[in-house]
Amino acid sequence: MNRLQSCACIAAILLLGACASTTPSGSRMFSQPRSSDHRGQDDLLTAGLGLPGLRAMTPPGFADAARPTPQELRRRALWANWRGIADLAPGGGYGELYGSVASVPGREFSAFATVPGARQPHRVLLQLPDDFDIKKRCVVVAASSGSRGIYGAIAVAGAWGLPRGCAVAYTDKGAGTDYFDLDAGQGIDAAGQVAGADAELAFKPAAGGSGVAYKHAHSQDNPEADWGRHVRQAAEFALATLNEQLPQQARFTFANTRVIAVGISNGGGAVLRAAELEGDWLDAVVAGEPNVLAQGHGARDLYDYSTEAALLMPCALPALGLPAAPGADARCAALAAQGMLSGADLKAQQQDALAKLHASGWTDPALRAGSISVGFDLWRAVGVGYASAYGRYAPDAHPCGYRYSALGVDLSPRAATDVERASWWADASGIPPGAGVGIVDPNPAADLGLKGLQCLRRLWTGDSADAQRVRGGIAETRAGLPRAGLPVIVLHGTDDGLVPQAFSSAPYVAMAQAAGRDVRYWQVRNAQHFDAFLGFPQYGAVYLPLLPYVYEALDRVDAHLDGKGALPVDAVIATVPRAGKPLATDNLAMPR
Hints:
Helix content: 25-40%
Strand order of the largest sheet: 1-2-3-5-4-10-11-15-16-17
Shape: globular
Strand content: 5-15%
Oligomer: single chain
Structural class: alpha/beta
């Protein structure tokens, strides 16, 4: 055991009574600790890239493409995760009108953490700036959005917390980019590098199958059910590390350290689940566009509406005046032939698809923005991956026969190369397709892929053993009420087409407010789910970014905790689209 591990464990034992104890599976709560310094040309926030480097169209390179160093992997992961979350394009306002890419020197500390009962660990990481505000003693804890890796919330939490002298703690919440090559028997170690199955890996799946496995889908832990506990463990890791690194200071405890949790999308859902946990360990929560399943009218699970959208949305969009996706007309005809759509001609079938989506709660703004997910095949990706996650299936046991692999030019499965494996940890978004890994459909050409999509849908609507298994996993993810007295700000774009507010945040807020919880709700007009796509002129002209409102909400709760301001009231924010012009303050119409 090295010095960092030993000291961190001692600190954790004194503070938490946890590090030396074991989970029911026999593993340590924290293991494989690492630390690194980041100063000069390699800072905490952008690895020295700054805004020009983050805007570069090509990623930072590797000296040896098959064997990148941990430093090279980190820089590239930061580049990828910034670009995957924020609108960094000129005219978008980032770093000028809102947000920060300031150079922040400091140190990073990371480890694997394991929630009780889990087979696989999640990553936790603490960024400790050199100008950490000892008097304020602030920790921002964040969960990655989507299925992203450990830097998946850098643009959300790091960009706000680090320049203000807060330490920032992260968790990949049991998802992340720790892919495993089933054919080569290789996975990803604590440094992000490829290593054999006999090494200490971030994810080592059950034996069986070929191709590629990834942790969110194939951990067999249903990590979404534990997202709140993942967030709390990241906060516990932060306090333990602060105590080890700053021994001259009064001990850091939840009683004397400000802890604010923040996340967007799946990360937003994770911090809302953390808000349920007992104890006064959290001081405030900010959740943007949260994927959260609440009790109440209108609440729908992501798996439910994504499998519905995968089948019907390509056919429905032309009825809204949007261009048809490739193959959509043929799919309409096939669905009509199977009795899933009615109508004597294509136009009537498109109208019927739209009517069915309206009847299940979709709004026209959400459908228009949902065309982004159609174009990127995201609905199928969610259905395939989340079916495995909720049902706790091994990589070779998907109930609809899907699997993942590197693909040839003819889209047939092939072995991954050393170069491809080497970049997975830095380049992947955590859910294929992407980073050289694709979805292998068992019936790709037979009926335009509809057989697989219908199988995914039946896991929600049917009564088979597999359907009951998947729905049982979904039931484990249902959110409860936040702790009484805990300030919570939820914000959501009214045009969100991936996680529509009508299915997620609106029912959650209604449930919480009806129970007397301190939850405030900002609804942002003309905002959809993906700030990163606003660099495309056709999206930037119509939609506004959500990140400015996340940062503003953090400012408001921070001032409130300082006794310098009131929490915001509920608001529907009437933004003004840019219409091709640079973003200005008037466009955002920030509540005052």
